[in-house]
Amino acid sequence: MNFFKKAILSTIRKCGYELYRIEAKNTGQVHAKEHDPDQIDACYRKLRALGIDKAHYGCGPKLFGDGWANIDFTSPGKISANVFILANLASRHPFSSDFFRFAFAEDFIEHLDQAESIIFLSEAYRSLRPDGVLRLSSPGLKGVLNRHYKSGDYEGAEKGRQEAYTHWEHRHFYCEESLTMVARHIGFSEIEFVEYGKSKYKELNSLDSRSDQKDLNIYVELRK
């Protein structure tokens, strides 16, 4: 371990944190037939030992503690949580089935295309325990049209594309009807659209952080 890495780990430990970096094999594209069962088992045992039972998907630099596994495609720029897992969320997830009690993703799923988002939702469903809940907060198609597509002509459509898609690298937006259809097809037993920051589950309450997007986002809790 070089001096720079040692200094980083020393600083983290002084702040009371311990970094666990669990990498999925081949984080570029991990197909089911290539996925290593031993790696899933190792990840399961590590998370169980740490008391982790909640998944924070697409975490970016915003990392949760207190029983959360923070998961994303790339490492965060700032390390300030107990657990970070590097994984391709648009492919097979390196988690055992029926593992997490709760999961959360804010402004993540719109960065996937439709096919990738269905894979993500399917894998999130598989990884949830029976009655486990996934909460999603993401720009909805209705909100995107209202905010960014001010006219129905070409100029309005092009301006909307730049504002809603290109600028933020967004690729697909669900509406309530399409998300409900996909979630039910995957197998979620309950789909409840909720308000910003509010949940009947204390673990999911007050997690939303972007109040400026209340008129843009849809907030939904999907129960397995």
Our estimate of the beta-strand percent is 15-25%
Oligomer: single chain
Helix share, percent: 25-40%
Number of separate domains: 1
How many beta strands in the DSSP annotation? 8
Low-confidence stretches: 1-34
Q: Which structural class is indicated by helix and strand composition?
A: alpha/beta
Summarize the structure.
The chain has 224 residues and is α/β, with parallel strands linked by helices. Helices cover 32% and strands 21% of the residues. It is built from 6 helices and 8 strands, in the order αβαββββαβαααββ.
For this entry, give a set of tags.
224 residues; alpha/beta; 6 helices; 8 strands
Structure, explained:
With 224 residues, the protein is α/β, with parallel strands linked by helices. The protein has a single domain, classed as Vaccinia Virus protein VP39 (Rossmann fold, 3-Layer(aba) Sandwich), CATH 3.40.50.150. 32% of the residues lie in helices and 21% in strands. It contains 6 helices and 8 strands, in the order αβαββββαβαααββ. Strands 1-4-3-2-5-6-8-7 form an 8-stranded mixed β-sheet. The chain is globular, with a radius of gyration of 18 Å. The termini are far apart.
Break the fold down into its secondary structure elements and pairings.
Elements: H1 3-14, E1 20-23, H2 37-49, E2 54-57, E3 68-72, E4 83-86, E5 100-106, H3 114-127, E6 128-139, H4 141-148, H5 154-166, H6 176-186, E7 190-193, E8 217-223
Parallel strand pairs: 1-4, 2-3, 2-5, 3-4, 5-6
Antiparallel strand pairs: 6-8, 7-8
